[in-house]
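Example 5.3 — Haloacid dehalogenase-like hydrolase domain-containing protein
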Amino acid sequence: MASTSHLILPTGVRADFSRRREGPLCLPATIRNFPSPRRLLPHPLRASPPTLAAASTTSSLQALIFDCDGVILESEHLHRQAYNEAFAHFSVRCPVSSPKPLYWGSDFYDELQNRIGGGKPKMRWYFKENGWPSSSIYAQPPLTDSDRETLIDVIQDWKTERYKEIIKSGAVEPRPGVLRLMDDAKGAGIKVAVCSAATKSSVVLCLENLLGLERFHGLDCFLAGDDVKEKKPSPLIYLTASEKLGVSGGNCLVVEDSVIGLQAATGARMPCIVTYTSSTANQDFKEAIATYSDLRNVSLPAADREMRCKGWWERKQRVREMKRKRESRWMIASRDGRGRGVEEAMG
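Solution (predicted structure tokens):
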């Protein structure tokens, strides 16, 4: 797994950036490769706390956007619990001949979540692959698209209400570092948003209980799965947030926990850090700026070099273009007949 060293996030501290200096998230001008999380320096530069709010309007980082499930709270085991209780409540049997209600084990659920994502898409995919179930909702497996969607809606609604009860029980706490990072960002004049693919009512309940009403109502933008037509990994939710915040994608920093969320962020041309969970720890996060086991060591001390390096996305595209050219030269050199090699490499 990638380094878990401290991440320096930009806060617009007054400094001389006329020359690029080597740091944990910004490469010197002589180096062209995009930094891998595994090569981050173990001892990042730090700035003095009193300057956190200084000159925030000139900072490259203007908005910090959090996912909810997996980032603000580690919730996948709670969702799995609620799904299994819903399957038992409606006596969902898949296959139909099964003597017991459907039950998703931990390892399988992690794979399903990381592969498919959102709640209804998970059930829809599972039933298409394994056969539509019998249940107390439909004694026989539903045959029409309308009945199948009704089945999924009823199960999902019951599951959502059960999940809310679990959250309201008070047994769930935010992940380490989340509240402090949000407060630091607000104090530095950086906009704070939450973008979750989950059902809006369940996300609202989570945020009210875990962030507190003051932080929740102080968010500059809040979007849930109900607010956009396409779920992650589609970048639509982040593109919508960028528009609502009035901040360009290159000036936003996304905090995600999974490769699906990372793809959504980079698809919106937003740099992203990943705070992985036990269920996502083995995923490939090479497109992230950095990866962390939690946010307790991620701070906003004062170096905004990374996002000041003339555009994260443009630099990434230049690296990809250089890689493509190197591969083309290798193909040319490895083939018999230079003309045919050039044609195939460039075609």
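Remark. The chain has a mean pLDDT of 80.
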